[in-house]
């Protein structure tokens, strides 16, 4: 019974560390995507999609939402997957690639599409490795 209690505590503290790391990575990724969008806009790239402007803060908000979903996925995998790190990395890489599809077909100029895709890749490059490091191999 003591072994079970220790295992539960270890799992709980690992999940807590995973969530803290995930939230910190989410904040960093949100700031980074807003910076990329702002720099792109200052360089003359339109932030209009289908004729409607995308606010720079919108990049940060959407990055936070989807990054936190990734943290929830990671926490679930930490609990239920046989190889949580590998499963998380594979899953999030596929989801990142799929997230580029709407950008490719968006009603926007080529530079805007490229900027949108870059923000996805920047966020993934920050969040995926940070969270994966907290998962058991």
Structural overview:
It is a single chain. The protein is mainly alpha-helical and 137 residues long. It has one domain (2-133). The protein contains 4 helices and 2 strands; from the N terminus they run αββααα. The protein has helices at residues 2-42, 56-80, 84-105, 110-133, and strands at 48-49, 52-53. The chain has a two-stranded antiparallel ribbon with strand order 1-2. Helix 1 (2-42) packs antiparallel against helix 2, helix 1 packs antiparallel against helix 4 and helix 2 packs parallel to helix 4. The radius of gyration is 17 Å and the shape is elongated. The protein starts with a helix and ends with a helix. 27% of the residues are buried.
Number of domains: 1
Q: How can the largest sheet be summarized?
A: 2 strands, antiparallel
Helix % is over 70%
Silhouette: elongated
Overall pLDDT confidence: 92
Give the CA-CA distance, first to last residue: 26 Å
Q: Which class of secondary structure composition applies to the elements?
A: mainly alpha
The number of distinct β-strands equals 2
Order of strands, main sheet, comes to 1-2
Strand-and-helix sequence, N→C?
A: HEEHHH
Strand content: under 5%
Q: Radius of gyration, Cα only, in angstroms?
A: 17 Å
Count of separate DSSP helical elements: 4
Low-confidence stretches: 5-10
């Amino acid at each position: 019974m003591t072994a079970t209690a220790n295992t539960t505590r270890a799992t709980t503290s690992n999940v807590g560390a995973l969530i803290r790391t995930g939230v910190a990575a989410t904040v960093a990724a949100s700031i980074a995507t807003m910076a990329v969008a702002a720099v792109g806009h200052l360089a003359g790239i339109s932030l209009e999609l289908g004729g409607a402007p995308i606010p720079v803060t919108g990049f940060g908000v959407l990055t936070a939402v989807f990054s936190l979903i990734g943290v929830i996925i990671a926490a679930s995998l930490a609990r239920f997957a046989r190889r949580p790190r590998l499963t998380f990395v594979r899953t999030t890489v596929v989801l990142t690639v799929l997230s580029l599809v709407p950008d490719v077909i968006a009603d926007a100029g080529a530079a805007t599409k490229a900027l949108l895709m870059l923000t996805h890749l920047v966020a993934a490059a920050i969040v995926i490795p940070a969270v994966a490091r907290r998962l058991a191999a």
